Amino acid sequence: MEPFNRNYGTVGLAVRRARRSSPPQANERLPPGVQEVLLRGGCHIGKLNDKIVLKYGSDLNDQGLQISIKIEKCILQIIGPHPRIIQSMGLVEDGLILKYYPNGTLHKYIEAHPDETLERRLEWCKQLVDTLSFVHSKRVIHCDICLYNMLLDENFNIILADFQGLLLSSVTGLPLLDGMTRESAKGYMPREHPYVVNVQTDLFAVGSAIYHIMAGHEVFPELDSFHDEDAIAARFVNEDFPNNDDYVASHIVEKCWRGEYSSAAEISADIAAVQADAEDVGKQLKQLDVEMEFKDDYEQYEDEEEEAEYDEEEDAEYEYEDEEDDEDEEVL
């Protein structure tokens, strides 16, 4: 981790740790055209119609929020079009117009579908790191990788959203643009200065996201992201990780948390290996099912043959007894 530089952040703005929701306010502002508020936080997401939403600041007097929204527009423009990244329609007076994804967040989907297949979960993990690899190639640090910021398209593929992170200079490595958002505690790499972010801090958060996808719940579910920040940080520092026998790909998650990856592409390669292993196991299980089905059919055939032989023997015995009875009647 690079040393702290007091000019690292955007001058005059305070770094914000991500908060996922906030209750409706009595005097809540609804910009013109917003039909309903889909998400409340520092920035709200309001549905305009079945195709687009508006991202706008919850507080008109918070200049930091307004700047962050403008920075997000610039970062998305720099990244450019990508099938796994949220589509921006540009700025308007009240905020940023974004494409609407009616299938919602991956966080809500996993919560509602705990029995989702291993194949699908691994594919989500692969989509996440492959998309992040592309983002990092543009010198952009996301700064808040989590399932709340992953939407699902019409085919239930991941769409990475919320780009109020920062753009790094290719010369100095310092931010050219910084939306001043940072991860919440469960995806936050413990460090002295929250301003300082890089590829490594994103990859740490990827570990928590993969854990959430594979285990079906957030890491340390008994702890609250906002009230128990110190306890969560202490567990990460002390490597007091969840039991790695409880979920698939735990070795990948722990390597993220220990800072053993240098790029998202390295994580992608490890996920691909797990996918291949899972596919092999699936084929073996399928073959086993076929063999078991054949065995069951064969055993049923043998049972039927034995029953047929038993019936023939029984019929022969009855015929023999009938013959003996006929002979006895003739003697009499």
From TrEMBL:
GO MF term list: ATP binding; protein serine/threonine kinase activity
Cellular component GO terms held in the UniProt record: chromosome, telomeric region
Keyword RNA-binding: no
Location relative to the cell: Chromosome, Telomere
Amino acid composition bias (Acidic residues), ranges on this chain: 299-332
Catalyzed reactions per annotation: L-threonyl-[protein] + ATP = O-phospho-L-threonyl-[protein] + ADP + H(+); L-seryl-[protein] + ATP = O-phospho-L-seryl-[protein] + ADP + H(+)
Protein name: EKC/KEOPS complex subunit BUD32
